[in-house]
Amino acid sequence: MNWDVVIPLLIFLASIFIIGFWASRKIASKSNFLQEYFLGSRELGGLILAMTMIATYGSASSFVGGPGAAYSQGLGWVLLAMSQVATGYFVLMILGKKFAIKARQYKAVTLVDYLKGRYNSKAVVLLSALSIIIFLFSAMTAQWVGGARLIESLTGLSYISALFIFAVSVIIYVIFGGFRAVAVTDTLQGIVMFFGTLIILVGTIIAGGGMGNIMSDLANENPNLVSPFGHDGSLTPLYVSSFWILVGVGVVGLPQVAVRAMSYKDSKGMHRALIIGTVVVAFMMFGMHLVGVMARPILPGIEVADSVMPRIAMEVLPAWLAGIVLAAPMAAIMSTVDSLLLLVSSTIVKDVYLNYVNPEATRKKVKSISFGITAVLGISVFALALSPPDLLIWLNLFAFGGLESAFIWPVVLGLYWAKGNKYGAMASIILGVGAYSVIHNVWPEPFGMHTVTLPVVISFLGYVITSLLTDRSITYANLQDDASNG
Amino acid sequence: MAEQEKKLDMRFKLAHREAWIGIGLVLFNFIWWFGFAYGLGSAPVEEYSYILGMPAWFFYSCVAGSILMMVLVAVIVKSFFKEVPFEVEEEEEKV
Lengths: 486, 95
Known about the structure:
heterodimer; A: mainly alpha; 21 helices; 0% strand; B: mainly alpha; two-stranded antiparallel ribbon
């Protein structure tokens, strides 16, 4: 075993446990268990808010898959990755203060709570809870597989032991620490990701003999590598631009990101998070993807794209420093799965169980159910990740695009368009998920754009048209709802 | 109650304005990114000029563009975004 690499990783894991333990003591001291466990009592400040948003969003693909693709595509893939700079400011500016105020009015703890408060419809709640559970459960499992593979390749442990270490560490701090532990560990993980990027970027530029040298090596190998069009000229401007929807503005519709936009303490924190978030996300996406490109002249001929990051780190840095840098992708994966685990758990406990199964549950009961569901989810993800079934891999492939198509309009138009109603929201969710699954399978990348583009347009039309068509009947239906609820 | 409604309206007006600023920023970001990348990058590779060792299209679109966005966001947030309270003044729900 390569101890120089393993020791920094162990220190990293140990710090995460300490934070989880600290957060679990906070939970005991708060009077409102649900708000604390699933939302950290809405006490996040600017730095933590920025970091938890970026770390949740930046996953295995930003630190492992992305640099691997940049290695084979060249600077065109860095250009594509830069569409993510928008996530740093767009989500918080669009959802912004109105979402924060509305979420407090509705006493919303989850995104589904917000939709429930806005649309007051059981169908919307169940549809959205179902999409979150199915898609994010699959996304989570795929990330665990990535995390375990990474530990496997770094330490030489077997896949199963690596998965076990990964699973145990995540499950323990999420179960006992809740949202606060997730957000604070995300901050630590975000800081590790930031400095990891800085170190590897500088190390790679030096190892390649300077930026100018690396670029001329690339141009000599294949001039397309320094053009914006990819190694074989196949990255068209339209295709690359359509990623602004998938990884730029569409991120507003991701439940794991949106829920963070209701977790902050005050507008001062939000303002700071906007600035910090933009700086950090721009630097990380730029640095990691550029490293992938620059790795090409230094280590030519890597076949497995996912191994580009670990191999370049081991190549250009001393072993102990590589250990610190490789904690970054580890951190990226952990900070994503911890949020997903808690989100799926909150959807089951808060949105399904407390809404429809047992609204009268006592505090003690809610607490043990929350711990229990989180544990059961964690263990089932572990079991599935041992040998992931094909269906799951398939679901994960469109988890992000599918969720974005489902939620972007019910959330954003629900916030800003008074005429939007529950029928519009239902149509939007059904059409978004449906169109995404169909187009993904029978007509991938229509008109040379990423698959997500059309479903987002379709679910927009679905929301607006259905809301307008049902505008008159709604008054009658509302009265009935009010009568049956009140 | 009417008083409270009025206060909410004021805050929502502010929030709406800030959301429009977000849309404006993202459009500007996109145009800058797209214009430099494909405006300069579409020339034949042999004719590229280089800045700090990077092709000019890449430098302006990805490096200068990102730094510009960081500065713009910081300036806009500091000068146009107002601090408002979020609470709707009522007691916490105990669960």
